[in-house]
Amino acid sequence: MHSQSLLSLFVKLFTLPHSIFTGSNPRPAIPILSSDTWAQFNSTLSGRLHLSTTESGPCAVNAALLQGLTFEASGEKLTPWEQCQVIAAKGGNNGYYVDAHTTADVVNAFRFVDQTGVPLVLNNLETEFCSSPSPNTLTILTESMNKLDFIRSFQPRQCSSIQSTPAISFSSGASLKSIYSLAEREHVTVVGPTAINFDSARGDSFFKDTTSVLAPALGSALDNLLEVEIVTPDGQGGGVNNFALVTRITVKAHPQTPLTVYSLALASSQSNTRRVISALAQHALEMAKNGWGGYVSASGVLLVNPTFGGNLDTAKQSIGGLVKDMTVDGKEEWARFADFGEWISSEDYETVHAFVKPLQIPNQAISSRLITTSLFKDVYGKQDLVKAISTPTQRVDSWLVALTLPYAHSGSTTSFTPALYDSPWNVYFLSSLEPGMSKEDRLIKLSAVAKANNFLRYLTPGSGVYSEQADLSEPNHEGPCGSARSRRNNTH
User: pLDDT at residue 10 above 60?
Assistant: First the structure.
């Protein structure tokens, strides 16, 4: 962390006297508490302690997120909602949950767990759709912690050297839609995650997916963090055997930034892929330096830029060479939007769904690689890059090139590994793990994306991987993150 940076991060810790979990030590038997003990605890929460049933709890709270997804349970193909009900009906989900409204509710819940030994389940909408796994457990839900404020002049506490700046501060349960809508009303821009459903995605996703189409010009979501409030049981804000719950986040509010958006719909073919990737590789460094973000797949190209003040003529001139070099037939469109909020509220934004959906749904085999500057400066390296993407060595369902890293951002490097600031591209190989698929077939899919990525690993020694989107067999995974599935960023 660089204290002199404008975006230095201050973490406010609400600490409790003892750690709840003990690392590698065996977890003790689940204690059975009396109804009077639970009732007394409920009184400290103003009645916000509830018993999970088929009509309430994580199943009901997460209903919007669960729609349209499928899982396999006991040989049956069920939606997560249906599976949640099955588990609940069998008595597997009748633990308690705290509908936290304030930071004090979270502190009280941690203190109760520390004093009684009741197992704690921290709600995670991405992965724990049925959060309370057994009786006599406690889940903390933060969806009701949804307050947010615009602050015209924000000064991070204990960072007097940092210049005050406009900011938006929000509780972790605030929806992305409400955050972006507030920014639009206040005529400012905040850099946050790209999502399919902005109603169900929450503020804590600023930590889960820090990439953005605005990142090349304005920095990542983490680069724009000013202050984070978390509750931790033992005062340790990180580490393999420690955890904490984020309760409030404050991010920098940039001046309102008009966007220019370019899209090209393509017929999926190997020849089109080769031409598009070849042209993009040729212009990659120039595009990244000029703040172009976006996505590229076999079905099209989407490019977004916040640096030209919405001037379409300037934007067209900026990538005129790229458009000319792609030499493919497709439906081409240009658009201008007053700001990010107007864009994500428009019908045009639906184009994004086709690109990002594979990254945001469960049951995906995924492997990724950061493509660093040096490869784009090598003529033969660019040729190999085109080959690696257009004709992967293994059969995969899809590939994606994401231009969503803070390559051109000249501000703080507070939180990211240096590889992310030296990588214009992040390349993904993906395959769907369908419900009912056998273990052997799943392993074949997982192996295929990993092997497809091996050529990119060979081409980019010393590069890295955005570890939340790494495959399970990532080589040299025991790096600074400790795991290829860590929610931090790793270099190899």
Answer: no
Tell me how far the alpha carbon of residue 329 is from its chain's centroid. 33
Specify the pTM.
0.78
Assigned token pair, 143: 């969806």
Under DSSP, the state recorded for 421 is: G
Query: Which value, to the nearest 10 degrees, does the dihedral of the CA atoms of residues 173, 169, 224, 485 take?
Result: -20
pLDDT band at 260 (very low <50, low <70, confident <90, very high): very high
Continuous segment of H or E residues that includes residue 403: strand 398-403
Write out the two tokens for 311. Answer: 């001037």
Q: Are 428 and 367 in contact (CB under 8 A)?
A: yes
Tokens encoding 398:
């899809």
Could you tell me which of 307, 299, 322 has the C-alpha nearest to residue 408? 307
Whether 114 contacts 17, CB under 8 Å? yes
Cα 282 from Cα 288, distance rounded (Å): 12
The token pair at 288 is: 């990244």
Q: Which residues pair with 265 in a beta bridge?
A: 300, 331
- Residue 164 three-state SS: coil
Cβ atoms of 156 and 314 within 8 Å: the answer is no
57 φψ region: left (φ > 0), alpha (ψ -120 to 50), beta (else): left
Complete DSSP assignment for 29-81: PPP---HHHHHHHHHTTTT-EEE--TTSTHHHHTHHHHTT--EEETTEEE-HH
Q: Are 365 and 443 in contact (CB under 8 A)?
A: no
User: Given this model, what pLDDT does residue 475 score?
Assistant: 67
425 and 216 Cβ atoms separated by less than 8 Å? no
Across 16-25, 124-133, 211-220, which has the greatest mean pLDDT?
Answer: 211-220
Question: Which tokens is 427 given?
Answer: 């390349």
d(CA 300, CA 311): 23
Report the relative pairing of strands 225-232 and 259-266 from DSSP bridges: unpaired
Which range (350-359, 383-392, 436-445) has the least confidence? 350-359
345 vs 28, higher pLDDT: 345
The tokens for 475 are: 């080589």
| 163-187 pLDDT tens trace | 899 999 999 889 888 999 999 999 9
90 contact partners, CB below 8 Å, separation of at least 6: none
Q: Are 96 and 137 in contact (CB under 8 A)?
A: yes
**pLDDT averaged over the chain?**
76
Q: What percent of the chain has pLDDT over 90?
A: 30
* Gap between the Cα atoms of 389 and 298, Å rounded: 10
Burial class (CB in 10 A: 0-12, 13-18, 19+), 347: exposed
